[in-house]
Design brief:
Helix content is 74%, strand content 0%. With 166 residues, it is an all-alpha fold. Helix 8 (131-146) packs antiparallel against helix 9 (152-165). It starts with 13 loop residues before the first helix and ends with a helix.
């Protein structure tokens, strides 16, 4: 049998644990500061939703700070990857937001260039999409493109795709 020494066990340092806990508190504060409509788009468990609601209600800064610490503690016990991804999608400066935005633009361009095939591919991914509305917006955008007009329909098409994909 081998004896385990402290060098054999790879535990995070105390400083690393503090940094991770601070990141979770910061994430909790971001959740508290989100608009209700944005918060509704993020999947959270009931205890976390209740804690966020309570933090929003509090006016005393110390009480609010303690509540945000509590939210950070709740976040430690769950997988935060989905929450982090959702927050990044909402943050206009993040790489995730830019990638998501580029993906939406690619869909719009595919609709305009490929037409029916792209619409069918999109509907396969997003069954809630209204095929007729997509076709109408796609036709209008193609018409505007061929006439070298400003792309109002293209913008409407993009907004509709964004609404479905968020």
């Amino acid at each position: 049998m081998t004896d385990l020494t402290t060098e054999d066990i790879d535990l995070p340092s105390r400083s690393q644990l503090k940094r991770e806990n601070q990141e979770l508190r910061d994430m909790g504060e971001q959740l508290v500061l989100l608009a209700k409509s944005q918060l509704a788009k993020i999947t959270l468990d009931d205890s976390l939703k209740a804690a966020i609601k309570e933090a929003r209600r509090l006016k005393n800064l110390d009480a609010r700070r303690r509540q945000i610490q509590y939210i950070g503690k709740l976040l430690r016990s769950i997988d935060v990857a989905g929450i982090k991804y959702s927050l990044d999608k909402l943050n206009h400066q993040s790489q995730t937001f830019r990638q998501h935005f580029a993906k939406l633009e690619q869909w719009r361009d595919r609709f305009i260039n490929e037409g029916h095939d792209a619409i069918e591919d999109f509907i396969a991914l997003y069954p809630d999409a209204d095929r007729q509305q997509l076709r109408n917006l796609q036709r209008q955008a193609c018409r505007e493109k061929s006439m070298n007009k400003p792309s109002a329909a293209s913008e409407k098409l993009f907004q509709y795709i964004k609404q479905l994909a968020d």
